[in-house]
Amino acid sequence: QHQNQKAYGLALCRGDVLAAECKTCVSEAPKEILSRCPYNKGGIIWYDYCMFRYLDTDFLGKIDNTNKFYMWNLKNVSDPATFNYKTRELLSQLAQKTYVMNNKLYATGEVKLENSETLYGLTQCTRDLSSSDCKKCLDDAINELPNCCDDKEGGRVVSGSCNFRYEIYFFVKE
């Protein structure tokens, strides 16, 4: 018997990305994912500017804890204790900006470091999440900092529902 097959999809562009770039990224993503995983009932693909996800069951509005990865800068910082503290503090402030009265569920910001460097950060949730789920997703991601990125000049934790990134160089678009 032929089942009624449905697909559920979600696309997310980084909050600072222009509409045209977003459109290009989101139109390339499904082609790429289908060429890499042609027979899968679900898939997820990430680029710097966008993410695309699909599944044969309804995942919308639920936090995705299964798809997650870390990336980090190979360079170590000179004062790890202070740097790790500042990083967590910045990301926590941005997370709060992301889920409190922010319909884009996206925030960026920066903090000055002692050595005249600047630390830049970004936090974002997919817009199918409630404010409280966005908070939970980002809190959990930020708690991964010691596992992924302690003492590193840059890092990110990316999941299917939220992500953060920090660097000591400016990486968001004006």
Automatic annotation (TrEMBL):
It holds the Pfam family Stress-antifung. Keywords: Repeat, Secreted, Signal. GO terms for cellular component: extracellular region. Residues 1-59, 65-171 form the Gnk2-homologous domain. CDD domains: Gnk2-like. Its main location: secreted. It comes from the Eukaryota. It is found in: Secreted. Coiled coil: none annotated. The keyword Secreted applies. Belongs to the cysteine-rich repeat secretory protein family. This is Gnk2-homologous domain-containing protein. It comes from Glycine max (Soybean).
